[in-house]
Amino acid sequence: MRTVRLRNVSLGEGRAKVIVPITGRAAEEVVAQASELAGHQLDIVEWRVDFFAGALDPDAVLAVAESIVAVLGGRPLLFTFRTKGEGGERAIEPAVYTELNTRLIASGLVDAVDVELFYDATAGDAVIEAAHEHGVAVVGSNHDFAATPAADEIVRRLVAMQDRGCDVAKMAVMPTGRADVVTLLSATATMATDHADTPVLTMSMSGLGMITRIAGQAFGSCATFAMVGRASAPGQVPVDDLQPILSLVDAHLPA
């Protein structure tokens, strides 16, 4: 599998990396959450900017991003505007989405950006192009909060992200029964075995899908999302509880 490097973190090799989101609404809350992460073991910080009250103002976002980076201690920053259509906090017009992401990319403050597979194609392609021009990684993503597609459909969407030029292919689904969790894990294993062009990052949400957040590495997922304080999606595990479990999983997997 090709690896993706974000500063000193390599996605696609070794144990599953831990991503923790920041979900503050006011600027002071965002920076306070970033500061709090210093006391926890994690690999990548995701700023879920759609939670931020000033999310549609690129100048305000840039100012807060500078403050976040100042307190992260060199940890990589993933910049994510999750749209309303995929479980985010607000809608955004394509022109604003493009400007917001491309300005953050050009600032040098972020190490990766999230681009939703089914968001406006022109806007998404512009963000991908800008990211690659500036050496910023792209996490392609798709989120289904209602159900779990068939395994071949999950694979199709993840491969579509790879074909589009995304550096990491991510998918999150909602299980309605135990079989759906197995479906997600099966699709992940297929990606890791048959389509290893990029690291893949998958999860089944809610308590039912929690096993995918703690044992995803065994099936080929390169990372998992954990929480400090407020979760950004159903089923996230507190990071301090998760780390010992990830170490145990990693210790028993083949090298």
SSE order and pairing:
Blueprint: E1 4-6, E2 9-11, E3 17-22, H1 27-36, E4 44-48, H2 58-71, E5 77-80, H3 94-107, E6 112-116, H4 121-133, E7 137-144, H5 151-164, E8 168-173, H6 178-194, E9 200-204, H7 210-215, E10 223-227, E11 237-238, H8 239-251
Parallel strand pairs: 3-4, 3-10, 4-5, 5-6, 6-7, 7-8, 8-9, 10-11
Antiparallel strand pairs: 1-2
Helix pairs in contact: 1-2, 2-3, 3-4, 5-6
Structural commentary:
With 255 residues, the chain is of the alpha/beta class. The chain has helices at 27-36, 58-71, 94-107, 121-133, 151-164, 178-194, 210-215, 239-251; strands spanning 4-6, 9-11, 17-22, 44-48, 77-80, 112-116, 137-144, 168-173, 200-204, 223-227, 237-238. The strands form 2 sheets. A 9-stranded parallel sheet has the order 9-8-7-6-5-4-3-10-11. The two termini are 14 Å apart. The mean pLDDT is 96.
Entry summary:
The chain is α/β, with parallel strands linked by helices and 255 residues long.
Rg on CA atoms, Å: 17 Å
Q: Write out the strand line-up for the largest beta sheet, numbering strands in chain order.
A: 9-8-7-6-5-4-3-10-11
What is the string of SSEs from the N terminus onward? EEEHEHEHEHEHEHEHEEH
* Strand proportion: 15-25%
State the low-pLDDT regions, or none.
none
Residues in helix, %:
25-40%
Number of helices: 8
* Backbone shape: globular
Question: How many E-type strands?
Answer: 11
The largest pleated sheet is described as: 9 strands, parallel
Ends: how far apart?
14 Å
Q: Based on helices, strands and strand pairing, what is the structural class?
A: alpha/beta
Q: Give average pLDDT, whole number.
A: 96
